[in-house]
Amino acid sequence: MRNAAGFRRSLLQWYARHKRDLPWRRNSDPYPVWISEIMLQQTRVNAVIPYYERFLNRFPSVEALACASEQDLLAAWAGLGYYSRARNLQAAAKLIHERGRFPNEYEQIRELPGIGDYTAAAVSSISFGRPRAALDGNVMRVLSRLLAETGDIGSPVTRVRLQAAADELLDRKRPGEFNQAMMELGATVCLPQQPQCLLCPVTEHCEARRSGRQREFPIKRKRASPNVVAKELLVVNKRCGILFWQRPADSRRLAGFWELPEPSQLPGARVEKTIGQFRHTIVNTTYCFQVLEGSIQTVPDGFSYLTKKSLDEVPLSTTAKKALACLQNRRLMPGHG
Ligand code: SF4
Questions:
Q1: Mutation choice for ligand 1 from 146, 183, 217, CB with most ligand atoms inside 8 A
Q2: Which residue did the predictor score with more confidence, 214 or 312?
Q3: What percent of the chain shows pLDDT beyond 90?
Q4: pLDDT at 226 exceeding the cut of 90
Q5: Which residues are catalytic?
Q6: CA–CA separation, 301 vs 124, rounded Å?
Q7: Residue 195 Cα: closest atom of ligand 1
Q8: I need a surface site. Which of 44, 85, 175, 318 has the fewest CB within 10 A?
Q9: pLDDT for the residue 171
Q10: What's the gap between Cα 318 and its chain centre?
Protein backbone atom coordinates (compact mmCIF):
# COMPACT_ATOMS: atom_id res chain seq x y z
CA MET A 1 0.00 0.00 0.00
CA ARG A 2 1.37 3.37 -1.03
CA ASN A 3 0.32 5.43 1.98
CA ALA A 4 0.40 3.04 4.91
CA ALA A 5 0.82 5.86 7.43
CA GLY A 6 -2.30 7.61 6.13
CA PHE A 7 -4.18 4.33 6.23
CA ARG A 8 -3.28 3.74 9.89
CA ARG A 9 -4.23 7.27 10.84
CA SER A 10 -7.66 7.10 9.17
CA LEU A 11 -8.38 3.64 10.55
CA LEU A 12 -7.43 4.45 14.13
CA GLN A 13 -9.30 7.77 14.16
CA TRP A 14 -12.41 6.04 12.90
CA TYR A 15 -12.02 3.27 15.49
CA ALA A 16 -11.66 5.72 18.37
CA ARG A 17 -14.92 7.37 17.32
CA HIS A 18 -17.02 4.41 16.20
CA LYS A 19 -15.93 1.32 18.11
CA ARG A 20 -18.70 -0.63 19.78
CA ASP A 21 -18.75 -0.60 23.56
CA LEU A 22 -18.05 -4.27 24.24
CA PRO A 23 -17.43 -5.56 27.79
CA TRP A 24 -14.01 -7.05 26.97
CA ARG A 25 -12.82 -3.73 25.60
CA ARG A 26 -13.11 -2.02 28.97
CA ASN A 27 -9.64 -3.04 30.06
CA SER A 28 -6.72 -4.79 28.48
CA ASP A 29 -5.96 -7.44 31.13
CA PRO A 30 -4.93 -10.62 29.36
CA TYR A 31 -7.37 -12.90 31.19
CA PRO A 32 -10.64 -11.27 30.04
CA VAL A 33 -9.19 -10.55 26.58
CA TRP A 34 -8.24 -14.20 26.22
CA ILE A 35 -11.65 -15.48 27.43
CA SER A 36 -13.48 -13.19 25.00
CA GLU A 37 -11.29 -14.20 22.06
CA ILE A 38 -11.91 -17.89 22.71
CA MET A 39 -15.67 -17.36 23.11
CA LEU A 40 -15.82 -15.32 19.92
CA GLN A 41 -14.15 -18.02 17.84
CA GLN A 42 -17.34 -19.75 16.78
CA THR A 43 -20.02 -17.45 18.18
CA ARG A 44 -21.36 -14.00 17.25
CA VAL A 45 -20.61 -10.97 19.42
CA ASN A 46 -24.17 -10.40 20.66
CA ALA A 47 -24.58 -14.03 21.65
CA VAL A 48 -21.24 -14.04 23.50
CA ILE A 49 -21.86 -10.98 25.75
CA PRO A 50 -24.16 -12.63 28.39
CA TYR A 51 -21.97 -15.76 28.49
CA TYR A 52 -18.84 -13.70 28.85
CA GLU A 53 -20.29 -11.70 31.75
CA ARG A 54 -21.57 -14.78 33.57
CA PHE A 55 -18.29 -16.61 33.02
CA LEU A 56 -16.19 -13.77 34.39
CA ASN A 57 -18.48 -13.44 37.40
CA ARG A 58 -18.17 -17.13 38.07
CA PHE A 59 -14.41 -17.34 37.34
CA PRO A 60 -13.00 -13.84 37.83
CA SER A 61 -9.32 -14.86 37.59
CA VAL A 62 -6.96 -17.41 36.06
CA GLU A 63 -6.73 -19.04 39.47
CA ALA A 64 -10.51 -19.38 39.82
CA LEU A 65 -10.69 -20.99 36.38
CA ALA A 66 -7.73 -23.28 37.06
CA CYS A 67 -9.32 -24.56 40.28
CA ALA A 68 -12.90 -24.93 38.97
CA SER A 69 -14.53 -28.35 38.92
CA GLU A 70 -15.21 -29.71 35.46
CA GLN A 71 -18.92 -29.68 36.23
CA ASP A 72 -18.90 -25.95 37.09
CA LEU A 73 -16.79 -25.16 34.06
CA LEU A 74 -19.06 -26.99 31.64
CA ALA A 75 -22.17 -25.54 33.28
CA ALA A 76 -20.80 -22.01 32.76
CA TRP A 77 -19.98 -22.86 29.15
CA ALA A 78 -23.26 -24.67 28.40
CA GLY A 79 -24.95 -23.13 25.38
CA LEU A 80 -21.75 -21.94 23.71
CA GLY A 81 -21.01 -25.38 22.26
CA TYR A 82 -17.60 -26.71 21.21
CA TYR A 83 -16.78 -27.86 24.72
CA SER A 84 -13.18 -28.58 23.81
CA ARG A 85 -12.73 -24.79 23.94
CA ALA A 86 -13.73 -24.77 27.62
CA ARG A 87 -11.49 -27.72 28.44
CA ASN A 88 -8.55 -26.10 26.67
CA LEU A 89 -9.21 -22.85 28.53
CA GLN A 90 -8.95 -24.68 31.82
CA ALA A 91 -5.85 -26.64 30.76
CA ALA A 92 -4.18 -23.36 29.81
CA ALA A 93 -5.36 -21.67 33.04
CA LYS A 94 -3.74 -24.48 35.06
CA LEU A 95 -0.43 -23.96 33.26
CA ILE A 96 -0.54 -20.19 33.74
CA HIS A 97 -1.47 -20.64 37.40
CA GLU A 98 1.41 -23.09 37.95
CA ARG A 99 3.87 -20.72 36.30
CA GLY A 100 2.61 -17.82 38.40
CA ARG A 101 1.96 -15.29 35.63
CA PHE A 102 0.29 -14.82 32.28
CA PRO A 103 2.91 -15.15 29.51
CA ASN A 104 3.53 -11.84 27.76
CA GLU A 105 5.27 -12.88 24.53
CA TYR A 106 3.48 -14.03 21.39
CA GLU A 107 5.40 -17.33 21.21
CA GLN A 108 4.71 -18.24 24.85
CA ILE A 109 1.01 -17.45 24.49
CA ARG A 110 0.86 -19.44 21.24
CA GLU A 111 2.11 -22.53 23.09
CA LEU A 112 -0.86 -22.64 25.47
CA PRO A 113 -3.56 -25.26 24.79
CA GLY A 114 -6.33 -24.10 22.46
CA ILE A 115 -4.49 -20.97 21.30
CA GLY A 116 -3.72 -20.55 17.60
CA ASP A 117 -1.91 -17.85 15.63
CA TYR A 118 -4.85 -15.47 15.63
CA THR A 119 -5.63 -15.64 19.37
CA ALA A 120 -1.96 -15.38 20.34
CA ALA A 121 -1.60 -12.30 18.12
CA ALA A 122 -4.78 -10.73 19.51
CA VAL A 123 -3.91 -11.29 23.19
CA SER A 124 -0.23 -10.40 22.87
CA SER A 125 -0.98 -7.18 20.96
CA ILE A 126 -4.00 -6.00 22.97
CA SER A 127 -2.65 -6.84 26.42
CA PHE A 128 1.11 -6.50 25.98
CA GLY A 129 1.56 -4.25 22.94
CA ARG A 130 3.43 -6.92 20.96
CA PRO A 131 3.61 -6.09 17.25
CA ARG A 132 1.74 -9.06 15.73
CA ALA A 133 -1.04 -8.64 13.21
CA ALA A 134 -4.10 -10.73 14.08
CA LEU A 135 -5.57 -12.36 11.01
CA ASP A 136 -9.08 -13.73 11.36
CA GLY A 137 -11.71 -14.26 8.67
CA ASN A 138 -12.89 -10.63 8.87
CA VAL A 139 -9.39 -9.21 8.57
CA MET A 140 -8.54 -11.54 5.67
CA ARG A 141 -11.61 -10.29 3.81
CA VAL A 142 -10.76 -6.61 4.47
CA LEU A 143 -7.15 -7.10 3.36
CA SER A 144 -8.11 -9.04 0.26
CA ARG A 145 -10.26 -6.07 -0.81
CA LEU A 146 -7.79 -3.38 0.21
CA LEU A 147 -5.04 -5.07 -1.78
CA ALA A 148 -7.24 -6.65 -4.49
CA GLU A 149 -5.64 -9.97 -3.60
CA THR A 150 -6.09 -12.32 -6.53
CA GLY A 151 -5.06 -15.53 -4.74
CA ASP A 152 -7.63 -18.00 -3.42
CA ILE A 153 -8.46 -16.87 0.13
CA GLY A 154 -8.63 -20.52 1.21
CA SER A 155 -5.10 -21.34 0.14
CA PRO A 156 -2.22 -21.37 2.66
CA VAL A 157 -0.04 -19.39 0.22
CA THR A 158 -2.56 -16.54 0.16
CA ARG A 159 -2.79 -16.64 3.93
CA VAL A 160 0.98 -16.29 4.28
CA ARG A 161 0.93 -13.36 1.84
CA LEU A 162 -1.91 -11.63 3.71
CA GLN A 163 -0.20 -12.19 7.05
CA ALA A 164 2.95 -10.52 5.69
CA ALA A 165 0.87 -7.62 4.33
CA ALA A 166 -0.96 -7.27 7.65
CA ASP A 167 2.32 -7.28 9.60
CA GLU A 168 3.62 -4.55 7.33
CA LEU A 169 0.50 -2.43 7.69
CA LEU A 170 0.34 -2.89 11.47
CA ASP A 171 0.80 0.21 13.60
CA ARG A 172 3.75 -0.94 15.66
CA LYS A 173 3.20 1.73 18.30
CA ARG A 174 -0.44 0.73 18.85
CA PRO A 175 -0.74 -2.84 17.62
CA GLY A 176 -3.63 -3.78 19.92
CA GLU A 177 -5.77 -0.82 18.81
CA PHE A 178 -4.83 -1.45 15.19
CA ASN A 179 -5.80 -5.13 15.31
CA GLN A 180 -9.11 -4.35 16.97
CA ALA A 181 -9.78 -1.58 14.44
CA MET A 182 -9.20 -3.96 11.52
CA MET A 183 -11.54 -6.52 13.08
CA GLU A 184 -14.13 -3.83 13.76
CA LEU A 185 -13.92 -2.62 10.18
CA GLY A 186 -14.57 -6.15 8.94
CA ALA A 187 -17.40 -6.74 11.41
CA THR A 188 -19.29 -3.48 10.90
CA VAL A 189 -18.33 -1.86 7.54
CA CYS A 190 -16.49 -4.15 5.14
CA LEU A 191 -19.25 -6.76 5.37
CA PRO A 192 -19.08 -10.06 3.47
CA GLN A 193 -22.02 -9.48 1.08
CA GLN A 194 -22.54 -5.72 1.30
CA PRO A 195 -19.34 -3.75 1.89
CA GLN A 196 -20.38 -0.29 3.08
CA CYS A 197 -17.78 1.59 1.06
CA LEU A 198 -19.55 4.94 1.40
CA LEU A 199 -19.08 4.74 5.18
CA CYS A 200 -15.58 3.28 5.04
CA PRO A 201 -12.78 5.31 6.64
CA VAL A 202 -10.10 3.81 4.38
CA THR A 203 -11.95 3.86 1.07
CA GLU A 204 -9.22 5.96 -0.60
CA HIS A 205 -6.67 3.22 0.19
CA CYS A 206 -8.78 0.38 -1.20
CA GLU A 207 -7.72 -1.17 -4.50
CA ALA A 208 -10.94 -3.16 -4.94
CA ARG A 209 -13.07 -0.05 -4.42
CA ARG A 210 -10.89 1.96 -6.79
CA SER A 211 -11.70 -0.46 -9.59
CA GLY A 212 -15.33 -0.97 -8.51
CA ARG A 213 -14.70 -4.67 -7.83
CA GLN A 214 -15.19 -4.79 -4.05
CA ARG A 215 -17.78 -7.55 -4.37
CA GLU A 216 -15.37 -9.75 -6.31
CA PHE A 217 -13.09 -10.13 -3.30
CA PRO A 218 -12.15 -12.26 -1.47
CA ILE A 219 -11.63 -14.77 -4.25
CA LYS A 220 -12.77 -18.25 -3.31
CA ARG A 221 -11.96 -20.98 -5.74
CA LYS A 222 -14.34 -23.88 -5.81
CA ARG A 223 -12.75 -27.03 -4.48
CA ALA A 224 -13.04 -29.90 -6.93
CA SER A 225 -15.53 -32.22 -5.32
CA PRO A 226 -14.21 -35.75 -5.28
CA ASN A 227 -15.78 -38.28 -7.63
CA VAL A 228 -17.33 -41.15 -5.75
CA VAL A 229 -17.23 -44.57 -7.40
CA ALA A 230 -18.91 -47.70 -6.03
CA LYS A 231 -16.91 -50.94 -6.34
CA GLU A 232 -17.16 -54.50 -5.14
CA LEU A 233 -14.52 -57.06 -4.24
CA LEU A 234 -15.22 -60.75 -3.87
CA VAL A 235 -13.43 -62.89 -1.31
CA VAL A 236 -13.42 -66.55 -2.36
CA ASN A 237 -12.07 -68.21 0.72
CA LYS A 238 -11.29 -71.94 0.62
CA ARG A 239 -9.29 -74.32 2.74
CA CYS A 240 -6.40 -74.02 0.27
CA GLY A 241 -6.36 -70.21 0.39
CA ILE A 242 -7.99 -67.04 -0.95
CA LEU A 243 -8.48 -66.35 -4.64
CA PHE A 244 -6.33 -63.56 -6.11
CA TRP A 245 -5.09 -62.29 -9.46
CA GLN A 246 -1.77 -60.62 -10.11
CA ARG A 247 -1.36 -57.36 -12.02
CA PRO A 248 0.92 -57.83 -15.03
CA ALA A 249 4.47 -56.49 -14.94
CA ASP A 250 3.58 -53.79 -17.49
CA SER A 251 0.51 -52.61 -15.58
CA ARG A 252 0.28 -48.81 -15.38
CA ARG A 253 -0.46 -49.00 -11.67
CA LEU A 254 0.82 -51.41 -9.01
CA ALA A 255 2.62 -53.68 -11.47
CA GLY A 256 3.12 -57.15 -9.94
CA PHE A 257 0.74 -56.56 -7.02
CA TRP A 258 -1.88 -59.12 -6.08
CA GLU A 259 -5.53 -58.07 -6.09
CA LEU A 260 -8.83 -59.57 -4.99
CA PRO A 261 -11.22 -60.07 -7.92
CA GLU A 262 -14.28 -57.98 -8.64
CA PRO A 263 -17.40 -60.14 -9.14
CA SER A 264 -17.54 -59.04 -12.80
CA GLN A 265 -14.19 -60.83 -13.35
CA LEU A 266 -15.70 -64.14 -12.24
CA PRO A 267 -18.73 -64.97 -14.37
CA GLY A 268 -20.84 -67.61 -12.63
CA ALA A 269 -19.54 -66.75 -9.15
CA ARG A 270 -22.09 -67.06 -6.33
CA VAL A 271 -22.18 -64.09 -3.98
CA GLU A 272 -23.22 -65.24 -0.54
CA LYS A 273 -22.96 -62.28 1.79
CA THR A 274 -21.49 -58.85 2.46
CA ILE A 275 -18.70 -58.91 5.00
CA GLY A 276 -17.78 -55.24 5.17
CA GLN A 277 -17.10 -52.00 3.38
CA PHE A 278 -14.36 -49.40 3.24
CA ARG A 279 -13.38 -46.27 1.36
CA HIS A 280 -10.20 -45.70 -0.55
CA THR A 281 -9.21 -42.39 -2.16
CA ILE A 282 -6.87 -41.98 -5.09
CA VAL A 283 -6.19 -38.35 -6.07
CA ASN A 284 -9.70 -36.93 -6.60
CA THR A 285 -11.67 -40.13 -6.65
CA THR A 286 -13.10 -41.89 -3.63
CA TYR A 287 -13.90 -45.55 -4.13
CA CYS A 288 -16.55 -47.04 -1.85
CA PHE A 289 -15.88 -50.76 -1.70
CA GLN A 290 -18.37 -53.43 -0.67
CA VAL A 291 -16.53 -56.58 0.36
CA LEU A 292 -18.48 -59.70 -0.52
CA GLU A 293 -17.89 -63.35 0.21
CA GLY A 294 -18.77 -66.00 -2.32
CA SER A 295 -17.75 -69.15 -4.16
CA ILE A 296 -16.83 -70.29 -7.67
CA GLN A 297 -16.96 -73.63 -9.44
CA THR A 298 -13.77 -73.40 -11.48
CA VAL A 299 -10.71 -71.21 -11.24
CA PRO A 300 -10.49 -69.01 -14.35
CA ASP A 301 -7.18 -68.37 -16.12
CA GLY A 302 -4.99 -65.82 -14.41
CA PHE A 303 -6.37 -66.51 -10.91
CA SER A 304 -4.82 -68.55 -8.11
CA TYR A 305 -5.37 -69.34 -4.48
CA LEU A 306 -2.82 -67.82 -2.13
CA THR A 307 -2.37 -69.56 1.19
CA LYS A 308 -2.87 -67.44 4.32
CA LYS A 309 0.83 -67.84 5.10
CA SER A 310 1.94 -66.60 1.70
CA LEU A 311 -0.16 -63.42 2.04
CA ASP A 312 2.59 -61.96 4.20
CA GLU A 313 5.18 -62.66 1.56
CA VAL A 314 3.62 -61.27 -1.64
CA PRO A 315 2.89 -57.64 -2.51
CA LEU A 316 -0.79 -57.03 -1.80
CA SER A 317 -2.56 -53.88 -2.96
CA THR A 318 -3.93 -51.59 -0.24
CA THR A 319 -7.50 -52.31 -1.27
CA ALA A 320 -6.86 -56.05 -0.96
CA LYS A 321 -5.39 -55.49 2.51
CA LYS A 322 -8.40 -53.39 3.55
CA ALA A 323 -10.78 -56.07 2.27
CA LEU A 324 -8.89 -58.81 4.14
CA ALA A 325 -9.12 -56.68 7.28
CA CYS A 326 -12.92 -56.73 6.85
CA LEU A 327 -12.75 -60.51 6.68
CA GLN A 328 -10.56 -60.62 9.77
CA ASN A 329 -12.81 -58.21 11.73
CA ARG A 330 -15.85 -60.27 10.90
CA ARG A 331 -14.16 -63.36 12.26
CA LEU A 332 -13.34 -61.57 15.50
CA MET A 333 -16.96 -60.59 15.99
CA PRO A 334 -19.00 -62.91 18.20
CA GLY A 335 -21.30 -65.18 16.26
CA HIS A 336 -19.04 -65.46 13.19
CA GLY A 337 -16.95 -68.49 12.37
FE1 SF4 B 1 -14.16 -2.74 2.28
FE2 SF4 B 1 -15.28 -0.94 0.67
FE3 SF4 B 1 -13.72 -0.18 2.68
FE4 SF4 B 1 -12.66 -1.37 0.55
S5 SF4 B 1 -13.70 0.61 0.59
S6 SF4 B 1 -12.17 -1.78 2.69
S7 SF4 B 1 -14.27 -2.83 0.05
S8 SF4 B 1 -15.68 -1.23 2.84
A1: 146
A2: 214
A3: 73
A4: no
A5: 37
A6: 70
A7: 8
A8: 44
A9: 97
A10: 27
